[in-house]
Batch of 2 targets.
Target 1
Amino acid sequence: MLLEIAVFNMDSAILAAASNADRLELCDNIYDGGTTPSYALLEMAVQKLSIPVFPMIRPRGGDFLYSETDFQIMLKDIHYCKNLGYTGIVTGLLDKNGHIDTKRLNKLVEAAYPMDVTFHRAFDRCMNPFESLEKIIDCGCERILTSGQQPNAIMGKDLIKALIEKAENRITIIAGSGVRKENILDLARYTGAIELHTSARKDIPSHMEFTCESMQENISNVSVDCEEIRAMKKIISS
């Protein structure tokens, strides 16, 4: 089984790779659920990391209904990632009725080729998951990341299992959200998932010696829990 870690900065990416992660989903803006990393981060990651890294292609937070301007930005970001030598990306989009925007998804997949394309958790907001599964397969995506249309994968395990059975190895279903060492093996066994996804998030206190208390803000930094990653990898490898 493969363990994918979502990372939101370069330091976290280096730590996750050193902690036996199999693949990274590289994002910015954790509090928006992940958006496209900066060009500088994309350049540095492809230079410094030896494991597969799939950048997020998402121009903004919020919903997955994109304007034409948003879509053109996505296409440009895909071309940039391909030129840097990435082997895969993570993206997705819906129409206003909650269906997969197949016309635009086809264009994104075509622009990404020969990179792999993972359809991200926009899937968890779609109207009909089984109909959407077929549309995503037809568009040529290699993977779907999903929590089974629930806040976490444990709650959505029945749908994840059904999607894996329905997919019949035509596409890989990645189970993600809320995955930890306490539940990863049971989730994998129940659903049949061979790829698992987690942020293994750990907040690191700021090293600032001075803070302006009147601002009343949390300035901790987002990182990854290296021990958690190693533990999950050991569990699914045994």
Note: The chain has a mean pLDDT of 97.
Target 2
Amino acid sequence: MHLVTLAGSPSAHSRSSWLLQRAAAALSRPSRTSHHIVLRELPAEALLHADARHPALAAAIEQVLAADLLLVATPIYKAAYSGLLKTFLDLLPPDALRDKRVLPIATGGSPGHLLALDYALKPVLAALGARHIGDAVYVLDSLLPLDVSGQYRLASELDQRLQRALHGLLPTPSPLALEPA
């Protein structure tokens, strides 16, 4: 089974990317390969010009096409997922997500931004062929504070919600290996 993650934040120190890494670590298994795509590290000019033939973009697209499980993380800005993620998703061919299990993960500053997942991101994922979209995980920025060592901390109830969403994503339930928050 091949796991691919898409980190859609333009920020190097992103709560959504941190949650994505945590989720990917929980899904890692010796029998499962994984590939992590950090969209902000892709060539900006190629992204802006929608040059899907650029080697870095072509490789990222191929990884998404090869995925069985896809975790997509984004911050929510002004009631929408990141423009960086939108730009990349627009490069994917129609039905790129057919037969893939997809989990949207997002962070945002307001409870009202939760709806951006249902009204903006999930329809795009479905338009790309995803038929098994897991229960989205949305976390308020205020619920992912930095501790004194500069690490994000996830409350127990949010950690359990992430675990439930990951369990629902898997074709057959398997134990997860999340470290304590």
Note: The helical segments are 15-27, 44-48, 55-66, 83-91, 115-127, 156-169.
